[in-house]
Structures are given as structure tokens and as C-alpha cells.
Amino acid sequence: MFKEMSLKSVAAAALALLPVTAVAESPTVQQIKERGTLLCSGHNGSYFGFVEVNDKNEWKGLDIDLCRALTTAILGDPNANQIVPLSWAQRFPALQSGDVDLIIKATGWTMGRDTELGLQFSLPYFFGGTQFMAHGDLGITEAKDLDGGTICVEAGTTIERIAANYLSTLGVEHTMVSYESAAELRAAYVANRCDAFAGWGPNLAVLRATEIDNPDAHVILNDQLSSEPISAAMRQGDEEFVDVVNWMLAAMLIAEEEGVTMANVEDMAANPPNPKVARLLGSEPGMGERLGLRDTWAREMIAAVGNFGEVYDRNLGANSPYKLDRGLNNLWSHGGVLYAPILD
């Protein structure tokens, strides 16, 4: 036993003597600081719950709040950003050309995008699947009933390919009609120019609840075409920026796990209940140095936008017009699949 403990002590001492490598600041973060503005993706219209414009002509939504969170982490001001309106097709060229610093725009993490477009992705922050919504008077209850039908879909999205592949696998003959904007797509479905609407499950629920006169006359089919991880997208070659974005998301999840909210974050920082919260909120040093940021970046971020649960509820959940249950998008400890890496 003594020999084993001695070996462990020697190993610990050796690790303690290893040199600490200085953290190289992300070139993207350097550019953002020099510019004084984070360039973040918007949408060419409204993508309800994620990216939309309110009646005061202000951007809002889950993705917008994540942009504001990142802006606070890097620049200390949630409003020091420029939201750049982009269509789905424009988002990746805009990122590659430097017109935006990153894409936070309900973007699915796929192998093709990861390997062929020069992109890299953050931890998933949302999970959503493709489904069909159909006019109830057609008697459609499952996807195979769409044989011979017309399907509306938004152009340039993974949904278009997923829906076509799914129906082809079932041997369902169909006509796919693509629309460039979400507004055109919704109008086409409501006007009965197609039998079914292929879309992201949460968006279908939002549409049915808010934009259709008789929601009960429309059915969301039980067919689950996919379960898609949604992540922030960045240019390859700046791993330090990926770290910043990942730990921005992780900090919001850890805050929710630990009960740190917009309302109590300053009290928690002054009287942290445990070492994890002390590190998270900068009451103990180290949270910023590892990322080239301030030690208090997470505290300031949570004070500005809240923890992940607060952001979700405000934009999609109980405190939003859409009342979408979190489901898979809850913490792992509450029946969902979202979790943060270990804050050591």
C-alpha cells in the first residue's frame, strides 16, 4: 500500500511540474475585439422561436439570444453585435467569406458540411426532427398516405433532402415544391397549394398554433424522419474560437444545472454554494484565462441573457407564445439529452 501511494505521489508531483502552456487567443476573437462588434447570422424574415423580428423591429429568438450571449462573453456587452440577415442558402458562403463570424441559425450538423464545406461545429444546443403536417380533411395519418401528393418544403435546407429520401424509401410517389422563404412556404400550405408541409417538428407546431385559423384541422404525422443535432457553425482552423463557443454553451447549461439565473447570479457570485459555481462565475480565477477572456465572462453573460432554460422558455417554451415542451432539449437530469462537459 505504501509503495502504491508513493508512486501516486510521485506521479502527482511530476504532473505539477509540467509547464503550463499559455493560451493562444483565437484569431476570430481578436478580430471581433478589434472591430468591437460580433457579426452574427440572422434570417431573411422570421424563423419563429429562433430568429425573428418583434413589433419594435428588434431581433429576438433562441439563436439571437445565443448570439447575444457570445457577444457578452467576448465583448462584455450583449448589444455589441450586428445581426446579418441571411437566407438558408446564403449562410455558408457568408461564413466562408467573413461576412459573419459564425452561424447560429438552426443549422444541422452533418458529415457533408463538416468535411466538404470547411466548417466545424459546436456542441449541439438543440435537437429537432423532420416531420410532415397535412390537411386533416385529406384523411392522411401517416407518410405512406401521401402517395401522389404534393409536398411543400423550403429550398436549400437539409429538410428538403431528408423528406425526399424518406418518401422514396417508402416508395411514395410525390411532387416536391420548393420555396425560397419560410413566409412563401407557409402561405402556400395555408392556401392549399400542397397536400403536406415538410418541416422541422418544432416549427410545424409553431405554425399550427399561431398562423392557422383552425389548428385542429391539421395533423402532424407521427413519422419521425430524422433527429437532427443543431449546432453553431464556424470556419475551420480556429480551434480556440470553437472552445469559446463550446464553453459559452456549456456555461449556460451548467448555470441551469446549478440554479444560477439572471435574478440571482450576482448573489451566487458573492456567495457561491460550491466550487463549481465559484469557478463558473469568476469568484475563483481561471474561467477566463483558459479561453483568453475575462474571469467574469460567464457571470456577465448569465446576467444579460440567463441560463439555457431561461433562454429556451423565453423564446420557445412556457414563457413564449409557442409553449413548446422541451422534450429532448431538456437537461439530461430532467429527461432530455443536453449536458455540459466537466468544468474542472
Description:
The protein has 344 residues and is of the alpha/beta class. The chain folds into two domains: 205 residues, D-Maltodextrin-Binding Protein, domain 2 (3-Layer(aba) Sandwich), CATH 3.40.190; 97 residues, D-Maltodextrin-Binding Protein, domain 2. Helix content is 39%, strand content 15%. The chain has a five-stranded mixed sheet. Helix 6 links the parallel strand 8 and strand 9. Helix 3 packs across helix 9 and helix 3 packs antiparallel against helix 12. The chain is globular, with a radius of gyration of 23 Å. The two termini are 28 Å apart. The N terminus is likely disordered.
Would you summarize the structure shown here?
The protein has 13 helices and 13 strands.
Order of helices and strands: HHEEEHEHHEEEEHEHEHEEEHHHHH
Question: How many H/I helical runs?
Answer: 13
Q: Strand tally, please?
A: 13
Broad shape: globular
CATH class of the largest domain: Alpha Beta
Task: Give the key terms.
single chain, 344 residues, alpha/beta, D-Maltodextrin-Binding Protein, domain 2, 2 domains, five-stranded mixed β-sheet, 15% strand, disordered N terminus
Strand and helix map with partners:
Blueprint: H1 2-17, H2 27-35, E1 38-41, E2 52-53, E3 59-60, H3 62-75, E4 81-84, H4 91-97, H5 111-116, E5 119-121, E6 126-128, E7 130-135, E8 149-154, H6 158-170, E9 174-179, H7 182-190, E10 196-200, H8 201-210, E11 218-220, E12 228-230, E13 233-235, H9 239-258, H10 265-270, H11 275-280, H12 297-305, H13 308-315
Helix pairs in contact: 3-9, 3-12
